[in-house]
Amino acid sequence: MRRLLLLPAIVLGLTLVAPAAAGASVKTWKNPEAGQRTFKEMGVFVLMVEQPVRRTAELMFASTAKGETEVIPSHTFVSDDEYKNRDAVVAKVKEGGFDSIVVFRINSSFETTESTTKAALPGVMGANYAYFSTAYGFSLNDMGPLTQSVDRIVQIETLVYAASDQKLVWTGTERMKSPTPTFDSLGSVIEKAVKAMRKDKLIR
């Protein structure tokens, strides 16, 4: 069973690279042992290296999730030094009376390469291209320059924990292309995660 023990990942200083284009919908998982839970007060932890960026992202998450459930950015109750210490973070969550926390982070990232060729001869030969390619045995793929494009793919993960027993209640993941980090694209990812959380009645 996965528990709040993953919070030491804060110490690693994971960098969030926000996708620049919309991708597939969020894939979700609910812990069958946790039962149906709708939370009233949730602390938001966005795992990033840069503290100002982390604070902004947490504020974006809290604003997007605004409703009956009170969503509080972690930087408002956990100091930068405490943020690096798991025990200090857990103590602050209990002290604040939170019934849940949500962790927003990069789960993994990798690169994909796509190779393409551009034909040079058809434009010159016009309608005779089919005849010459058959008669002389050259291939369309042999005639143009090879080009390659590299895309970075990131898997973004949203994890919801119950504070009372530290159980992982719900996860949402999304795999997207990430050429450039921007706050606009980060907002899009947060919006999808919050929508999925609301659909599964974790927040109101």
List the topology elements:
Elements: H1 9-12, E1 27-30, E2 41-46, H2 51-64, E3 70-73, H3 86-95, E4 100-117, H4 122-125, H5 129-136, H6 140-143, E5 146-162, E6 168-177, H7 183-199
Helix pairs in contact: 2-7
Please name the defining characteristics of this protein.
about 200 residues; 2 domains; 6-stranded mixed sheet; globular
Explain this structure.
The structure is a single chain. The chain is of the alpha/beta class and 204 residues long. The protein folds into two domains: 4-111 and 153-199, 3-Layer(aba) Sandwich (Rossmann fold), CATH 3.40.50; 114-147, no CATH class. The chain contains seven helices and six strands, in the order αββαβαβαααββα. The chain has helices spanning 9-12, 51-64, 86-95, 122-125, 129-136, 140-143, 183-199, and strands at 27-30, 41-46, 70-73, 100-117, 146-162, 168-177. The chain has a six-stranded mixed sheet with strand order 1-6-5-4-2-3. The longest helix is centred in the last third of the chain and has 17 residues, at 183-199. The two termini are 26 Å apart. The relative contact order is 0.26. The model is unreliable at 1-23 (pLDDT under 50).
Shape assignment: globular
Cα-atom radius of gyration: 24 Å
The number of helices is 7
Query: How would you write the strand order of the largest sheet?
Result: 1-6-5-4-2-3
The ordered string of helix (H) and strand (E) elements is HEEHEHEHHHEEH
* Helical fraction: 25-40%
Low-pLDDT stretches:
1-23
Distance between the termini: 26 Å
Number of domains: 2
Task: Tell me the CATH topology of the largest domain.
Answer: Rossmann fold
Under CATH at level 1, the class of the largest domain stands as Alpha Beta
Structural class, judged by helices and strands? alpha/beta
Q: Would you tell me the overall average pLDDT? A: 75
